[in-house]
Each structure stands twice: as C-alpha cells, then as structure tokens.
C-alpha cells in the first residue's frame, strides 16, 4: 500500500489489487488511451492519450524547466 501526495499512473488499467494499493493517494492522475478504464473512474485527473507520448512530453517539459532555472 502506498500513500503519495501525487500518484501518476501511465497506462495502468486499474486492476482491483492495484486500486486497493493506491486508493489513499492524495491526488491520482491517470494517463490512458481508454477513458473508461477502471483507474480513470477513480482518478482526480484523467489525461486521455498514449502513455508513452505523454510521459516523453512531460519529461521534455521538466528537462526544459530544469535547464531554464540553471
């Protein structure tokens, strides 16, 4: 069981065991092509899209922000 402030789920469908393990997270962000996935139903924020493409875009943005602050 985990209880992070922010839980990012990239391409996770939301099997029952998984949902039970992370349900106490403060904010759940689901990134998935299937907006009807079980995890999307319990998420606070849903990004509908390809998990890999979203992850790459997020990493690029974070890298840009880090370099901007240097």
TrEMBL record:
Coiled-coil intervals, chain numbering: none
GO MF assignments: electron transfer activity; flavin adenine dinucleotide binding
Protein name in UniProt: Electron transfer flavoprotein alpha subunit
Listed InterPro entries: DHS-like_NAD/FAD-binding_dom (IPR029035), ETF_a/FixB (IPR001308), ETF_asu_C (IPR014731)
GO terms for biological process, alphabetical: fatty acid beta-oxidation using acyl-CoA dehydrogenase
Domain Electron transfer flavoprotein alpha subunit C-terminal intervals: 1-23
Pfam families in alphabetical order: ETF_alpha
Gene3D superfamilies: TPP-binding domain (3.40.50.1220)
